Amino acid sequence: MARDHVLKVSDLNIDIQRLRTPVFLVDEARLRANVAILKEVIDRTGCRIILALKAFSTYATFHVLRDVLHGTCASSVDEARLGREYFGKEVHVYGAAYSDEDFRELLKYANHIDFNSFTLWEHFRSVALQAKRKKGIHFGIRINPEHSEAPVALYDPAAPLSRLGVVRGEFRSDLLDGISYLHFHTLCQQNADALVRTLYAVEEKFGEFIPQMAYINFGGGHHITREDYDRDLLCQTIIDFKKKYGVEVYLEPGEAVALNAGYLVATVLDVIHNGMDIAVLDTSAATHMPDVLEMPYRPYILESGLPGEKSYTYRLGGVSCLAGDVIGDYSFDKPLQRGDKLVFTDMAIYSMVKTNTFNGIRLPDIAIMDSEKGWVKIHKRFGYGDFKRRL
Ligand SMILES: Cc1ncc(COP(=O)(O)O)c(C=O)c1O
């Protein structure tokens, strides 16, 4: 991200040489800055914003978010429980399907539950209506506007044959009794223009049902805290929508909440040569930053350049046995040597929630820091027990 390209390691305001690596650092100062932007959107529009736990669940930092955000959204029973226990406020849940056991448990933690189909709604309806009466739980339907904006097929819930959300042809207007909201999620790291185009499709297909809802959830994927994000357009769009239909609006971003708010610090373990210089690190794309291979993308490293841009170019490889465990090619002002520390940026989102212990590689420590106040403290350390417990 542009902001990080001008950052220096010294701007972190902590001594990274003293850290045991690999370690994720979550910067409360950056979280505060993101939340201030989200607060501005809430204040201008009266919308409600909840944190998508799938992107960022580092609960030791929830105290920074809790006063502004209205709650969390979960994809499973365990996320819902984490949201209830560590965030509080509202807990929304959307899963592609629920087992009977899941649903019973969800009723303990959630106050808003979405169904991915009318068959599921019919299956759970009598239990749900009872929970609505007794506990005030709200139920909704996820719709699929069949309008694609996501740049990558893997992240496009509106792609042909998608299982995510009810398409207009399958929508059951006769089963809306007890349904208080509609939910769509089609965006991925996008600006407000993509939301505007999506809303055209939503209104065209489902507009007739909107006035009878209490609210519409516009999903996640809004990169609201990115420098070039058009917040005026977002705010005007929400204000106009609320006025037109007389409904409340929810947003459930994950990335935007913790964008650029985390780092992964790794150490060079070896430098070898095979056609080019290759540095092997004590981290791994496969286990510690799987989105680098899945998206795929090239994370930025503080004070690095593109290959050839600075004097010394290296391919950075992970410590796992996977041949494709390659983070990318980078250049540096000085030659790399064993013991050098590298700081990967934007590592708070879809990182700690996705790590794994393939090869028995240890999970990185998790530390919380504050780049304004200059402190860092270890939140979690992992070891053999974490590896063994999963097997
Ligand atoms: C239903 C739903 N809501 C919210 C999100 C959060 O999206 P993001 O982290 O891109 O803002 C996702 C991401 O996949 C999602 O599937």
Automatic annotation (TrEMBL):
GO terms for molecular function: diaminopimelate decarboxylase activity. GO terms for biological process: lysine biosynthetic process via diaminopimelate; nor-spermidine biosynthetic process; spermidine biosynthetic process. Its cofactor is pyridoxal 5'-phosphate. Keywords: Decarboxylase, Lyase, Pyridoxal phosphate, Spermidine biosynthesis. Its EC number is 4.1.1.96. Transmembrane segments: none annotated. Substrate binds at E255, D291. InterPro entries: Ala_racemase/Decarboxylase_C (IPR009006), De-COase2_C (IPR022643), Nsp_de-COase (IPR005730), PLP-binding_barrel (IPR029066). Pfam families: Orn_DAP_Arg_deC (PF00278). It catalyses: carboxynorspermidine + H(+) = norspermidine + CO2; carboxyspermidine + H(+) = spermidine + CO2. Residues 156-347 form the Orn/DAP/Arg decarboxylase 2 C-terminal domain. Belongs to the Orn/Lys/Arg decarboxylase class-II family. NspC subfamily. PANTHER family: CARBOXYNORSPERMIDINE_CARBOXYSPERMIDINE DECARBOXYLASE, DIAMINOPIMELATE DECARBOXYLASE. NCBIfam families: nspC (TIGR01047). This is Carboxynorspermidine/carboxyspermidine decarboxylase. It comes from Thermospira aquatica. The lineage of its organism: Bacteria, Pseudomonadati, Spirochaetota, Spirochaetia, Brevinematales. The gene is nspC.
